[in-house]
Design brief:
single chain; seven-stranded antiparallel β-sheet; six-stranded parallel β-sheet; 15 strands; transmembrane
Length: 722
């Protein structure tokens, strides 16, 4: 009895400690959030106040007070415009680390109307689908546009690179994945190039009226390098034109390659604005260069392809080896490069497996559409049909990227809408939910509806990749899963049934036996896992890379100033040359060189140590055992799924032919099944037309004002399009 009493006391103490730790983490997270909001507010206040003419004397005093520092006049700009965002990035890393220690299952289910961020307002137009929060934010921003077009454009340039830093800690902190942040990059790019174009036109017209148009070609050493600005503007306009929606979609290769002119644009813009104003753009460029360097380091690692499966619909599945330290979520995605196909082309693919499926691999589904995917299909088909093992198919990977949390778990009911191969992220999501239910995790969605539209019935076999009864044998008792499939280009289910009149006597009922044309497993590929060095990887190592790179920049800058700038200026003074200081554009070049060397040398040293220790602690024996399990669960003859479809998700009763889904009717039916005031999570993956239809349907059922009698539909897109 005494032992039982002691055990109860210890359990109660452990529970109290857990509660205290939870409150401590919550308080720390709240305090960090307040500090970050205050810091961001101060930064925005500086941006708003800087162009004000009445504060000119105060600005000059502040800039002159920094002249005696090693950074000179640029130190003031660095302190005003770069320091707040750099400190904000550091606080964001700490916030992410605290968030990773709290449990997502303690969060309450969302109720009431959809939030401003999840409420679509504009569904058609060049800006894509715009939420109420984004529209309100841009409305306020547009009201602050002043007369200083060039300076506002430079501020936009500082922010331009933040959304396209795929592993940005700032975006991860507010849980905006890269695929959603790209549209903010597009908005900023259009706005910035409009400002820079008007800036250039205003000067050109002024000089033309003065008969001094030749000043466009001036490259004064100690003044503004006009011709450098012209070159930067031409590079920017070229990128701008090729990024217009219809041009980008019709000539994507042109868009992709011309967008590499950002290097020319950023470099000559630095020559144009000089070192002082370069410090205004420093933070955005620094974080982008650091992220790009981490991506480069990760992509240098050759990743083995553990297995391949070819399906009759043309889609094929690749299983990629990964290190146990590489973490991802059910809705994550990766960038894939196959050197045997092209050493330069990278393509994004949604992960089609759950993190609970295995620690040493992840899966993706690829449907051939264009030249690159068709070439990859030919390569995979040749390797699989020859049965060549090892397959010698190596991949380069960047990622995984995506949402920082499993946001879909906060909803009591989910509606998943997919088009074609857009089912891939939902294959991962459903596998993840089944795994969580099998593990007995609490606070999970109780109802999931899947609406899937395909062109041909053979594509329906992709749902065979969700072995519901195998993962969670009693899943029907734990949550309600309903599937509605729509085959738009077939008018009858004849092709899905065995008919005596058909010439193919061996045609199978695809509802009963999904087929695999061929498959191949290469156990040797486990020796080449995905690198743990990733921009969205371990927070402690990211912090170390960030601080080391920043310190490296400061050291290199001071060394250049000590051994190049100061001796040159002192020699000019001795020679009596009053204008013999280093040209303005060269000091800007020194700043760029300092930033790049700081990231490559100091940040690279940390990355090398990170990679070395990761390989040292990697458990290859565990990976081999897991891959043996993967082999054992595969079919013996490589031609059919195992008994994954004993409990089928699709059958003739929930498959419809000859028409698209009527989303309004379906959503209205779901609404009637929910209690008043419920909030339904709507996730869509598919072409742009499908995203617009789903967004418009959500908007039709939502109200801006909260109504406790209505059911809200919160819109989330998990599609990726540039």
């Amino acid at each position: 009895m005494l032992e039982q009493s002691n055990f109860g006391v210890e359990g109660e103490n452990s529970k109290n400690k857990g509660l205290k730790l939870g409150w401590t983490l919550a308080a720390a997270k709240w305090g960090l959030s307040v500090a970050m909001c205050l810091l961001f507010g101060c930064y925005m206040a500086v941006l708003a106040a800087f162009p004000v003419g009445s504060l000119q004397s105060l600005k000059e005093k502040f800039v002159l007070s920094m002249v005696d520092t090693p950074f000179g006049k640029g130190g003031g700009m660095l302190l005003l415009f770069a320091a707040p965002l750099l400190l904000l990035s550091l606080l964001a890393i700490i916030n992410l680390e605290i968030s990773s220690r709290t449990s997502v299952f303690n969060k309450e289910k969302v109720k009431g109307r959809a939030s401003m961020q999840n409420l679509p307002v504009i569904t058609r137009g060049r800006m894509g689908i715009v939420s109420a929060a984004e529209l309100l934010w841009w409305g306020k921003k547009l009201k602050r546009i002043g007369l200083h077009l060039g300076f506002i454009g430079i501020i936009c340039l500082n922010l331009l690179f933040l959304p396209v830093s795929r592993g940005s800690v700032l975006l991860r902190t507010i849980d905006i994945p890269y695929e959603h942040a790209v549209k903010y990059h597009q908005w900023l790019g259009h706005f910035m190039m409009t400002l820079f174009t008007l800036h250039g036109l205003s000067y050109s017209i002024a000089w033309y009226s003065e008969d001094r148009l030749s000043k466009l070609f001036d490259w004064a050493p100690h003044k503004v390098a006009n011709f450098a600005g012209v070159i930067a503007l031409l590079a920017g306009v070229t990128m701008w034109i090729t990024s217009i929606g219809w041009v980008r979609k019709k000539y994507f290769e042109t868009f992709y390659w011309t967008h590499h002119l950002y290097i020319v644009f950023a470099l000559f813009m630095t020559f144009h604005i000089g070192e002082v104003l370069f410090n205004v753009t420093f933070c955005g460029l620094f974080l982008f260069v650091l992220d790009r360097f981490l991506r480069f380091c990760q992509s240098r690692n050759s990743v083995g392809v553990l297995s391949t499966k070819l399906l009759p619909c043309g889609t094929f599945e690749l299983t990629l080896a990964k290190s146990r330290g590489v973490k991802y979520h059910a809705l994550s995605y990766i960038y894939l490069n196959i050197p045997e196909v092209s050493k330069l082309q990278w393509h994004p693919f949604s992960v089609a497996s759950s993190p609970y499926d295995g620690d040493s691999w992840l899966k993706i589904l690829i449907k051939p559409y264009g030249g690159w995917t068709l070439q990859l299909q030919d390569l995979v088909s040749a390797v699989v049909k020859l049965g060549r093992c090892p397959s010698n198919i190596n991949a380069a990977i960047e990622g995984p990227y995506g949402h920082e949390s499993n946001f879909f778990l906060q909803y009591e009911m989910l509606v998943l809408v997919a088009g074609g191969i857009g089912i891939s992220p939902f294959v991962a999501l459903l596998r993840d939910l089944l795994q969580r239910y099998q593990r007995g995790q609490p606070n999970l969605p109780s109802t999931v509806y899947l609406i899937w539209a395909v062109q041909k019935s053979e594509e329906l076999q992709l749902l065979g990749l969700i072995p519901a009864s195998t993962i969670c044998p009693d899943y029907k008792l734990k949550f309600n899963l309903e599937v509605h499939a729509f085959v738009t280009r077939e008018t009858s289910p004849f092709s899905l049934e065995r008919g005596s009149e058909t010439s193919d006597l061996h045609q199978h009922d695809r509802f009963k036996m999904p087929r695999i044309l061929a498959s191949l497993i290469d156990a040797e590929a486990s020796k080449h896992p995905m690198s743990i060095v990733a921009g969205a990887g371990n927070n402690m190592w990211i912090t170390a890379c960030f601080l080391a790179s920043l310190l490296g920049y400061i050291i290199v800058y001071l060394l250049i100033n000590l051994f190049i700038v100061q001796p040159f200026e002192q020699g000019s003074v001795k020679d009596g040359n009053s204008s013999g200081s280093i040209p303005r554009w060269i000091t800007g070049l020194f700043s760029v060189i300092s930033m790049i060397l700081g990231v490559v040398i100091c940040g690279g040293s940390v990355v090398s140590l990170w990679n070395f220790l990761g390989r040292l602690h990697q458990n290859t024996s565990g990976a081999v055992e897991e891959n043996v399990h993967l082999l054992s669960t595969s079919d013996n003859d490589g031609t059919a799924f195992t008994d994954e479809c004993a409990d089928r998700l699709l059958d003739p009763s929930n498959t419809y032919f000859g028409h698209r889904p009527n989303l309004r009717d379906l959503f209205d039916g779901y609404r009637k099944l929910q209690r008043p005031g419920a909030n339904v999570g709507v996730l869509v993956s598919g072409p742009e037309s499908l995203q617009i239809s789903v967004a418009e349907t959500c908007r039709a059922f939502n109200t801006v004002n909260y109504d406790s009698r209505r059911v809200a539909f919160s819109y989330h897109s998990v599609s990726f399009e540039l």
